[in-house]
Amino acid sequence: MAMEDQAGGTAAAAAGERDDSGACVDRQPDAVLHRVGPVHVGGRGGRSGIRVLKRNMKRAGSRGCMTRKSRFGSRERDWLKSDTRRGCVCLYGAAADPQLTTTGPQASSTPQPDLQLVLCSTSTTAEEMCAQRDGRGLFVQLHGDLVRRLEPTERPLQMLYDYLAAMGYADPVRVQQEAANSDLSCLIRFYGERPVNADQQERTLLKGVFSVRKGKTQLHKWAERQVILCGTCLIVASVKDSLTGKMHILPLVGGKVEEVKRRQHCLMFSSAGSQAQTYFVNFDTLADYQRWHRQASKVVSQTISLVDLSCYSLEAVPEYLFYSQDVTHLNLRHNFMSLGGPGGLLHLPRFSQLKSLNLSHNRLGVFPECVCEILTLTELCLSCNNLHAVPAQIGNLQSLQTLSLDGNRLSSLPNELGGLSQLSSLGLSFNDFNHVPAVLERLSAVDKLAMAGNQVVCLEVCALLRMSHLKHIDLRLNGLRCVKSESPEAVTQLTHLDLRDNCLDSLDLASVRSLETLHCQRNQLRALTVGGAALHKLHAGNNRLSAVSVFPVPNQLTHLDLSQNLLERLPDWVCDCRKVETLDVTHNLLTELPSRLLNSLSLRKLLAGNNRLQRLPDLLDHVPLEVLDLQHNKLGELPESLFFKALNLKHLNASANNLESIPPIGQSDDSLSTLQELYLTGNNLNENCGALLVGHHNLRVLHMAYNQLLSFPASKLSKLELLEELNLSGNKLKSIPSTVSSCKRLHTLIAHSNHITVFPEILNLPEIKLVDLSCNELTGIQLPESLPPSLQELDLTGNGSLMLEHKTLNLFSHITTLKLDQKSTTTADLQNASAPWSHGYCEMSGQRNKLCVSMLAIDRLGDSVEACYGIFDGDRNEEVPRLLQCTMGDVLCEEVQHSSIDSVYMSNTFLTSHRKLGMAGQKLGASALLCYIHHESSEPGGFLSVTVANVGTCQAVLCRDGRPVSLSKVYSLENCTEEMERVKLGKAIITEDNKVSGVTCCSRLLGCSYLSPWVLPKPWVHTEPLSSQDDFLILGNRALFERVSYQEAVCTVQAVRDPRAAAKKLCTLAQSYGCKDNIGAVVVALNIAEDSCTCEPPVYTTEPRGLPHVTFPVSMTPAPSDTATLSSTSGVVSEFNSETSASEVGSEAGSTASDEHPNAGAAPRPERRCSLHPGTTLCVIMVPGSVGLGSHMGLFQRQPSSATFSSNHSDNGLDSDDETPLEGVISNGSKLEVEVDIHCCAFQLRPGTSESLKDSDFEKGGSDYPNGKMRRQNSVVVSATNGCLLAVCGREIADLKKSPSASCLFGKKPSNGSVVASEDSHNLIEVALEAPKKKSGYFTAPAQQDPEDQLIVPPCLEQEVREQLKGQSPLVSGPSAPPTPPPLKDAGWDQSHPPPPLTPNPAPGPGVIPIIKPEVYDTAL
Questions:
Q1: Euclidean distance between CA atoms 192 and 156, whole angstroms
Q2: To pair with 292 at 20 to 30 A between CA atoms, which of 207, 351, 811, 918?
Q3: DSSP reduced 3-state for 720
Q4: More confidently predicted of 687 and 1183
Q5: How crowded is residue 1220: how many other Cβ atoms within 10 Å of its Cβ?
Q6: Of 36, 225, 583, which Cα lies nearest the Cα of 53?
Q7: What is the pLDDT of residues 987-1025, one digit of tens each?
Q8: pLDDT computed for residue 1348 by the predictor
Q9: Please, are residues 931 and 870 in contact by the beta-carbon 8 Å criterion?
């Protein structure tokens, strides 16, 4: 497979050397970094066809980084392309630090150590590669973790291809390309020799030649000796620089290590016991002194002789460790221990006192029989070693008490195992047993059987009679289908039984009379019978139970879980339980609760939400109830005596009912109420309820959102002095009482979606952290002289009349997240507002200290009518969601250019984003969902479809005809049976809470690569055609849809016409329903016509003067040093930089005086037109020096062209890494100006068809997108201005634009990292607010070409367009009479503050202009 080329061989002989096998090794100097490619090397080579190209690579992400094309010459690339079984393996040197492969900002220009690029094939073995390069071995590292030596027969390139295929790549060509990507080194990396890890060496072994003195007296003199610290002992040689003589061993466990103050850098080591020995060691340097002191201090502090060598990539135990004969516990977990060789497993019997040995996760493959010779062992762990059998020699370990064999492939156990009389714990989980091993009958000391994740289909209760010693049985995840209990004899010894996540449809355990705890959740049970004589806890949720039989009455029962079943009434025996404390019957069909239950003297926690309760019985006596959850029922009232009788009640949730009032409570002075949390969201409560809250003086959390409150009594609010969180959103409040200032502990005030006009007096509260007053009617803010330093987030979006002065903005500068609306009247904003969809989003951190949910919202993606929305949930980390929202939009734009198949480009988008996470994705991960709205066919006028891809638990729902349609798949082990089976086959350890290795419940994530192959990044992809019946999309994370069902979410959004307010309502409801985690929601309103047309009829206004302000929520994001870059995006929120001054943003977000244009006349709002129905379009051009949209405006009639437009890309002129200034762009530090040529010319085209013009200008470029994804470039925008014609090349417009998801990177990033990209301006050249700042690291998104303004007419409509244009007037003197607009599908889905129509003056001009030929649309510059 080597390239046979005589010329190449000559070049190789000249450039480097040829080894004995014929392979070519380029030995050019490593310092040469500027070369475009390697010296062409060739020759016949050896059998494997290996080529080694040695280069010193700069780190990925820097401008000088060598790409794949620069590494190879053209001949090498041709050789690779000819066969997909060929490829490149990157071999790193021993000094390569995996931490240096990141694309982070630190040390971005630091060169990496030597990197050898080896061209080989999938059949090339590690032995052949070592022979070609005179190496001793090859090593592989996965996910920056352990480093393993490759076996001689292993094939590196095939391993690389298999890894990529397992990730999800299906195309062999794409696999070959990805294998050569340098970013892949964070996932899988090959080394030419074992890498050096100084920290590992320090913790494993310390040695050196130092001055040593024995004893505390002065009898002994100082002498140079070899000193070693390994394991639990200090070893001192008897002669210098030699280990051949006598070795002095000093046990350190329990001893002392102290500093000798009389000598510099000197330590005193002392052993424990009455015959303690002492050695003084004088070190040469301070670094040595600190290193030895640190390590020795850890040893002497141990209470047992423990040596922990886990996760060190060891192949053998250090030879010096065998001097530590006092070692009793040895941990070798997560290594690659071998049997033979010095320090191999065969030498472990040399530890004469060893009691505990952990060899889990060592890829042993075979049970090491040598450990059966360590007769002192009491604990042995061999989990996750791919073992298939246990040898008979296991019977030698008569002292063994604990044996862990989980995560192997065992199907049977030897009979000799039954002779271990002291064995009390046996772990057999996640193996291949299909029955309970009979040898357990002889293991009388074993009281717990751990067999989760096996293949036991049937459990015979009679077999348990012969195992009278078993008390605990764990048979989770076995696919168990039946439990046979035919024996009349009772089972009296079994106390705990775990049958979760099986396939049982009925369960009869009446014969198990001593059962105390039963877990049978997530089965398919329709009938359950349990003996209740000794029953303490019963967990039977997530089944199909309509009845539960327990006999006798379980008087010892304390916890009962019957949630998510089909119960229409509670069993009678439940009310007879005398000790039940917790009862969970949520998500059933209950219509009533028995009076005896509610008056129980033992019940402390009652969860009865999501049922059909219409009333509750009255409380007859004082009850100890502490938690009462009644949400999502049909309650019209609560018991009158609730707060009088339930004096211990601390938590009450009655949200989503029909309450019109709440029970009364005594006056605040004599009230005994202990209520702390009260949730009343989604009822019919009015302002009279406020007076009934006064008696709850301990109230800390109050949610009364979405009721009928017109006001809140001021005097009553002042009584709630301990209030910490107040949510009054979605009411009809016009103000928040000023007495809110009495709530000194208040840290959260949420009152969005009201009619509040006056900013409340809350900024003087010492602990206030979050204030949300969005979607109100605020006009101004009166601020104190200083703001509390605790204020972290202030949301004022959706207040159209709010005007902020410069002083106010400066006072807000310290707030981490400040959300304001941007006042903008640009044409781009109006075009965005007239898009066939609009969006709103909301994020809430809940009770977390940080927000780990991020959003991506791009209303216009590319140059056609496309959009992209995404949501990313990092669960406990915020880094990965931020990285994904910064890069995923650009990755999608790149992938759609390479493929037109939705499943291909969406999958590759996720896989590429997974790779781009770098080191952050090794240990951290996130659920991700991406929604791409596009034309279904390659034609721009094709029907619209939405393609959704997701991993993890983020979900998307489409509202179609008022009903929810799920577009995503939940990849959690509990919800996806096939994923559970896949993970089980991979022998992963699934904990009791259904988490892979106890880390995550998701089987597919972006990131968390160290859990591969159990957790994969390959997404679920689904494409759904859009029609006029589709109203909106809802994107949400796990926390949202755990509390809000699909149907409720759809009904909620239908009731709110503004997408932003709808998203906020969804998150508010989830919080009120009990969610404590981060919540995120995106609502995308759709306005799709019958034929998927995206046109919109024009809307006219007769407003005579002035151009009113258009309110667009804009993201103003805080960063440490960068000032804010205001982005004009429809429906998007932006955050201000903490250091942004009022002068920088005041003109955009503050006073509106500079935006008024009193001279502007009336003009129609720009029509939204698709390529199916082209029409006249108003185009406005602002030249440098003009003020906004003043009087210098002209109108023209755009003529669609029948020519085929070029699809060549234009460079992004303002890319963050560009160092060369653009021609025509003038930068003065913080602003950009653009030079535009203005030409006066007669605009006349000769009759006849200009084929030459078509060929030269449009068709000669060809198409860069063979799959039909055309990107329109190099258009020309023309406008008649005062008789002159202004022409601006579209390429100059493109030079001012940024990529959709990268545009947010040049302002301040918000605390949560959310990105809502600014939309591209098609017809406007404007002065940028700021020059973009240079960025690097993870937050640098790749450059992306942006759309430009052009029209494309499908061939089938060309003739119709020509005929239509012939009858039109060549002169456009003003707006024509407004046609009768057809009714919109849903006019309510407009923005909450819709943009007013433009009102320009008619452009003066000559009386006659020659007729413009309709076939051509062009002009001369």
A1: 12
A2: 351
A3: coil
A4: 687
A5: 6
A6: 36
A7: 999 999 999 999 999 999 999 999 999 999 999 999 999
A8: 37
A9: yes
